[in-house]
Amino acid sequence: MSLQCRHLRLSIADKVICKDLKISFNPGEFWGIMGINGVGKTTLLKSLIGLHEVDTENDKNMCIQLNNQSIYSYKRLELAQKTGIMLQEYEYNFPSTVLEATLIGRHPFLNQWQIEDTHDEQLALQALKRAGLEKLSQRALSTLSGGEKRRVNLATLLTQNPDYYLLDEPVNHLDLKAQMDILTLLSNQFKNSGQCGIMVIHDPNLAWRFCDHILLLFNKGEWLAGDTQQILTKDNLSRLYDCKIQQAGNGKNDTFFSPVLESEGIGVK
Amino acid sequence: MLINNKFLFLTCLILLVLISFVFSLLTGSSKLSSNDIISLFNGTASPLLQTLIFELRLPRALAAFAAGALLSLAGVLMQVLLRNPLADPYVLGVSGGSALAALLAMLMGVNSLLMTGSAFIGALISILLVFVFSHQSGSWTVSRLLLTGIILASGWGAMISFILVIAPAEQVHGMLFWLMGDLSYDRPLLPAYLILLCGLIFSMLISRQLNIMLWGDLQAGSLGIQIKNLRLKIFFLSSLMTAGAITLAGSIGFVGLVIPHLVRLVLGTDHRYLLPASALTGGALLIIADTLARTILSPQQLPVGILTALIGVPLFLYLLKKST
């Protein structure tokens, strides 16, 4: 069981996102994908579930494989039982309750005519509870704050509960405490249930704390992947962001990365 | 003010439809006495009365119901397709193509049956043109679809104006009537009801997918929906139903835009309830509007499109105010 990229080449509008990407996302792992704005992190996530065309110069069917089978050989509905994504933002202009919005996560598991039953509703309510929204299940979506809407998106993915959680900046709009809560919840889930998380994230400190593997996407298709401890160094981060990064501490919970501004000229050694 | 008991609401709507049918059958220029009504039920009514009710008023009410239901369903689907609550069934130019064909037929002086056929063919041609021009090299985006539809619609609009300008004065009145929605002439009902039945069944089949489609292509795709395929289904379903409605009753405005909105305010966005509820509400509204259209200024008849707006606008504003 794994989600693998083999010699994957991706580009968008003539801009190369990655060349010859070889990577294996395995059960129980929590990956962080980092890179500057516009480097193609979201596009990579989309390609992993077949929603963005890969470059065809190499064998398209080989490049992305789920459980040793090309993702293109899966029916969309089958794929949706194994992979799911929480997008960076949603544009939703229609009235709906929080519970209704969460229940769409059950779609891949229902027949065409089936109406969600109490079992599906229970799953959605549990997901809402885990996302900290149990009191809001009957609220109209339009009345929620930005952070609460993010939690609804997460609850939808938790209801879908796929093997591979693709998360595009899941903690943006969330306050500090909520960021810690959500990421703790996710990382525990991946550790305990053998599911896998692949998360685009900008904050190196959160990535250090919660992700056990890191993929860095540099410009022009270069990349670097591996264990967090090896990859997330101040040198690599300085190269990634083209900006001097300093590091304080080295432990699991007291490491801190922060950029050094040229004008400040102060930094930790 | 979302209603929890959705089945109760649907039942009430069915009652509303029945009441509006009765209202329409009993209202008109010749007043019915209570004896007349009783005689209708026990079969002792005079032939004249039977003709009036069953051959004049009933077909007209049935036509109004079908047109209202078709337009409302098409409106719901078009709003999903374009992911925009402000879309209506006519936004992609179907009505323009149909109206142009109908007016051309009137200009040539053909009978009403040929005109009806011509209106339907005009709608189909318009649908195909939008499809061909927006469906290029695999990409089929909402913005391209919308752009193609709107451009075509304005093209049809110009040609319609041209015909109105060159048409002989005695025909212009009939044409304007048709353009504002006209239920006063005889037309075949069966095709419209077939389209309504098939349209409702097919759209109910994809109703859960419609709910998810509103979250955007990516979310829908990641939840297992084949976007392109579904979009094509929605496009053709809503276009065909629009074509059916226009063919039946001319381009009645307002119903397709506002009925789905109105029902959503009360019932929410779950299409498994929204679709049947919109069909019933739209049908009932159009029956009532048409009954008023033929009676308020009788013997002068009004285009029903004027009445749908006159009833719908205040009703909608009231619900909107109440919901916020």
Tell me the layout of helices and strands.
The complex is a heterodimer of chains A (269) and B (324).
Chain A: E1 3-12, E2 15-25, E3 30-34, H1 41-48, H2 60-63, E4 64-66, E5 69-70, H3 76-82, E6 83-86, H4 98-103, H5 118-130, H6 146-160, E7 164-168, H7 176-193, E8 196-200, H8 204-210, E9 213-217, E10 223-227, H9 228-231, H10 234-241, E11 245-248, E12 256-259
Parallel strand pairs in A: 3-8, 3-9, 6-7, 7-8
Antiparallel strand pairs in A: 1-2, 1-4, 4-5, 9-10, 11-12
Helix pairs in contact in A: 5-6
Chain B: H1 6-26, H2 34-42, H3 47-81, H4 94-107, H5 112-134, H6 142-166, H7 169-180, H8 190-205, H9 207-213, H10 217-222, H11 227-249, H12 255-267, H13 271-295, H14 304-323
Helix pairs in contact in B: 1-3, 1-13, 3-8, 3-11, 3-12, 3-13, 4-5, 4-6, 4-7, 4-11, 5-6, 5-11, 8-11, 12-13, 12-14, 13-14
Structure explained in plain terms:
- The complex is a heterodimer of chains A (269) and B (324).
- Chain A is of the alpha/beta class and 269 residues long.
- Chain A has helices at 41-48, 60-63, 76-82, 98-103, 118-130, 146-160, 176-193, 204-210, 228-231, 234-241, and strands at 3-12, 15-25, 30-34, 64-66, 69-70, 83-86, 164-168, 196-200, 213-217, 223-227, 245-248, 256-259.
- Chain A folds into 2 domains: 3-232, Rossmann fold (3-Layer(aba) Sandwich); 234-269, no CATH class.
- In chain A, the strands form 3 sheets. Chain A has a 6-stranded mixed sheet, with helices on both faces. Chain A has a 4-stranded antiparallel sheet with strand order 2-1-4-5. In chain A, strands 11-12 form a two-stranded antiparallel sheet.
- The longest helix of chain A has 18 residues, at 176-193.
- The radius of gyration of chain A is 19 Å and the shape is globular.
- Chain A starts with a strand and ends in a 10-residue tail after the last strand.
- The mean pLDDT of chain A is 90.
- Chain B has 324 residues and is mainly α.
- Chain B has a single domain, classed as ABC transporter involved in vitamin B12 uptake, BtuC (Orthogonal Bundle).
- Chain B is built from 14 helices and no strands.
- The model of chain B has no long low-confidence stretch (mean pLDDT 87).
- At the A-B interface, helix 3 and strand 6 of A face helix 9 and helix 10 of B.
